[in-house]
Design a protein that fits this description.
Layout lengths: L31 E3 L6 E3 L35 E5 L6 E8 L9 E6 L5 E5 L1
Antiparallel strand pairs: 1-2, 3-4, 4-5, 5-6
Amino acid sequence: MDSGRSRSHFQSDLDFCPDCGSILPLPGVEDAVTCIRCGFSVDVRDFEQKVVKTTFVFHKVGMAVPVAADDGPEFQGPVVDRRCSRCGHEGMAYHTRQMRSADEGQTVFYTCTSCRFQEKEDS
């Protein structure tokens, strides 16, 4: 099913479906990449010359702060580059929960790794 980009709801690059916003699967041996959620299809040749960059940051031994097992899920999630609105520290752990109905986005909870201030964002 070739939906075409004329009715797209999202402005995105080729990593995301322009109709529903889902992450598109990686190109394979088929002639098209098809969104598994809505069926949007894009020609696999559109992915030619696309450069994918990945960055890994390795911290020095002893620089990482171990998470205690008794800490809640707010400290067990990944840490992202987000500035705490209370103390200004760069680096907040996050986790998500489905707080609203299933057809709405998840709520993202951010916790400052320095002062433990929490904020939420509805996505």
